[in-house]
Design brief:
Strand content: under 5%
Largest sheet: none
Low-confidence stretches: none
Mean pLDDT: 78
Distance between the termini: 72 Å
Number of strands: 0
């Protein structure tokens, strides 16, 4: 231990101490900054150019109703074109990373889900398929014309089947409407 202290005391004073450590840390930090600064500057300049282009598209001064209306119509036209690209043509170059904005894919997913919901109501695979209807038909047997269902029985069966699937289209339309509303608000 004593020998270690002796060896440490032989180190040049210009290489030890808090000021030397601080100077070394400042040098390391400056080196790191100088390496990452060009990339940061490139990103800042890119965002600045994008924002300047957007600013230049805006009218400088709206001194009349005609200028304000022209600016509004230009903005509306740009909005309409964006909506067409996203919803109708399936282009998503304006939002490449945002999967929610890839509308054609999301709408296909919603249609698939809707189809699956309708198929889940498949009546042919139910064990008690038409048992209630057969019992009701047997009760009304002989009441009407041969080979014709009584009107009230037919309406009863039809109403029951319609009630089983009636909410599925409504839910589907609500989901699509809410999705399109979110997209329009985002654009």
């Amino acid at each position: 231990m004593r020998q270690d202290c002796f060896l440490l005391s032989k180190i040049d004073k210009s290489m030890v101490g808090v000021p030397v450590l601080a100077q070394k840390l400042v040098s390391i930090q400056a080196n790191i900054i100088s390496k990452s600064l060009p990339e940061i500057e490139r990103k800042i300049n890119g965002k600045l150019a994008t924002n300047m282009a957007e600013l230049n598209r805006q009218p400088q001064h709206l001194s009349s109703v005609a200028e304000a209306l022209t600016a509004f119509m230009r903005i509306l036209s740009s909005f309409k074109e964006s909506i067409k690209k996203i919803l109708l043509r399936g282009e998503f170059d304006e939002y490449p990373e945002d999967k929610e904005m890839h509308c054609t894919a999301r709408l296909v997913e919603m249609l698939d889900q809707y189809s699956n919901e309708l198929h889940s109501k498949n009546f042919d695979e139910k064990e008690d398929f038409l048992t209630e209807e057969i019992k009701a038909l047997q009760e009304t047997n002989g009441v009407g014309l041969p080979n014709f269902l009584p009107r009230h029985f037919f309406l009863n069966v039809l109403q029951k089947r319609v009630k089983e699937v009636a909410l599925i289209p409504e839910d589907f339309v609500k989901r699509v409407w809410n999705y399109i509303e979110r997209i329009v608000m985002e654009v």
